[in-house]
Amino acid sequence: MATPSKTLFEQFLAPIFSHLIDRDALVRLRDSIDWEAGVAEFTNPQVIYPNYYKTSNFHGVKNGYLSTDAALTYDPITQYVLPPGETWVRESLVKAIQGVPRRILDLGCGTGTTTQMLKRRFPGAEVMGLDLSPQMLVMADHKARAAAVEVTFRHGNAMATGLAAAAFDVVCATLLFHETPPAVAKTILAEAFRLLTPGGQLLVLDGNQRTLRATDWLNTVFEEPFIRDYSQGNVDAWLGYAGFEAVRTEDVFWLNQLSSARKPLPLVERGAAAGVEDRPAPDQLPLPQPA
Ligand SMILES: C[S@@+](CC[C@H](N)C(=O)[O-])C[C@H]1O[C@@H](n2cnc3c(N)ncnc32)[C@H](O)[C@@H]1O
User: Could you report the per-residue pLDDT of 135-159, keeping only the tens digit for each?
Assistant: First the structure.
């Protein structure tokens, strides 16, 4: 593990939040996990890390998410950067899910906080979290086991997951897109479209693009390499481009936004849903009679 002085906690937030974060507990947590074995267990050697991911020091952490420091400090910091409260913000996504999904995929799941909430809300569903960082997955798995929440975690790239097409009723991504170049976000949306069943729901919870555009200093504070590009974009437009319909984005307090969209049903199923199958086919309709 790199020296703790290289973490975001030490570099930036420590002076502000040091009185709120239990450093001894973090060290105890670090020592209670066999990181080497965990990383080996989760690493899929076929996963190729995209350039933006390997070369960016997200949050000022050396090696970005491919480090134990990132996995350890992520939760203690995140609880303070989602006003008015982390659980409230994450719940906005969970509560927006319509119906009772059977299979849910959480892309860029990180330490699995939303993944666990999804399983708690839909105990009958199979819930999977996918992330590019084996270290984040080790942390996610540790937390899920400790909480006795049955979810699975998988090492993978959300741009090309290798999972079967149309396998999920709900696909979601929480706090992922402000961490990726917009071109990557668009590729992930295309992959989410592929993974959803027709009629399935996509949910994206992330930074509020309008707020971030209006308060540029926030983009500096968060030490996110792609957040300015993200804030200049428009998730609604990206969703439309990926082929989604019923696209809707709402503010979640002032710093976040939640987007919901659906993968369209094939035309024939739409017709059935609207009762069109009960109507005579055009070739069975009586021909207009001459006057
Ligand atoms: C800010 S964290 C969000 C984690 C989690 N979703 C949450 O809400 O706390 C962003 C996560 O996205 C992951 N990530 C970034 N690019 C990814 C990609 N192309 N495929 C899968 N995961 C990715 C990172 O490893 C990191 O864990």
Answer: 999 999 999 999 999 999 999 999 9
CATH assignment, 86-265: 3.40.50.150
Q: Which residues sit with their C-beta closer than 6 Å to ligand 1?
A: 53, 65, 78, 108-110, 113-114, 131-133, 136, 157-159, 174-176, 179-180
- Separation of CA 246 and ligand 1 centre (Å): 25
Which ligand 1 atom sits closest to the C-alpha of 70?
A: 27
Domain boundaries, the chain: 86-265
Per-residue pLDDT of 204-263, as tens digits, reads: 999 999 999 998 887 777 778 899 999 999 999 999 999 999 999 999 999 999 999 999
Predicted structure pTM score: 0.88
CA 106 / ligand 1 centre spacing (Å):
10
User: Which residues 6+ apart lie within 8 Å of 117 measured at CB?
Assistant: 87, 90, 91, 94
